[in-house]
Amino acid sequence: MRELIEKIMEEGEVLSEHVLKVDRFLNHQVDPQLMKKIGEHFADEFRHERITKVLTLESSGISPALMTAYELNVPLLVARKRKPVTLSENTYKASVYSFTKREETEIFVSQTLLDCEDRVLIIDDFLANGQAALGLTDIVAQAKAHVAGIGIVIEKAFQGGGQLLRSRGYRVVSLARIASLQDGTVKLIEEVMCE
């Protein structure tokens, strides 16, 4: 997606060979026009899947997931990282390891909001090792619902999460696929294939 790639190249900051900081437009400060285009793109990719819910993990995935849900005219369901008092005992839960935070977290979704009739589109901001997406697919499986696809804003293809999800049969659509962050430079998959 051209607009996203331009933002990554202009405003993204490579912090290490594994970390790309995009807090100027995606996950701290959010560019609403870019999120609208991202939502439109994901909706176009998955419209034929008869999606009934969009599912994401708080908090960085909320912006692109909300715009996708809006474009598909379906509810957005946000998996919680902490179980609030208002969330009943009847929850689906999964463990997720965060690469950037270097910690394991339990995530929760109310059983009243997801069931076997649902066709779920999972949306997240980043895909590295695939742990967040796998946790969300686990929650969908507990509900006996169907994962209709996974939409990722930025995939760090060199970390293998995309390959893992695809090998399990999930359709993964990534809007920007990063081949490398070596030498402080963002190298995209398309650039590597063109060399």
Automatic annotation (TrEMBL):
Pfam families: Pribosyltran. The lineage of its organism: Bacteria, Bacillati, Bacillota, Bacilli, Bacillales. It is found in: Cytoplasm. One of its GO terms (biological process) is xanthine metabolic process. It is an enzyme of class 2 (transferase). GO terms for molecular function: xanthine phosphoribosyltransferase activity. 5-phospho-alpha-D-ribose 1-diphosphate binds at A128, N129, G130, Q131, A132. Xanthine binds at L20, N27, K156. Homodimer. Belongs to the purine/pyrimidine phosphoribosyltransferase family. Xpt subfamily. Residues 32-157 form the Phosphoribosyltransferase domain. Keywords: Cytoplasm, Glycosyltransferase, Purine salvage, Transferase. Converts the preformed base xanthine, a product of nucleic acid breakdown, to xanthosine 5'-monophosphate (XMP), so it can be reused for RNA or DNA synthesis. One of its GO terms (cellular component) is cytoplasm. SUPFAM superfamilies: PRTase-like (SSF53271). Pathway: Purine metabolism; XMP biosynthesis via salvage pathway; XMP from xanthine: step 1/1. NCBIfam families: PRK09219.1 (NF006671), XPRTase (TIGR01744). This is Xanthine phosphoribosyltransferase.
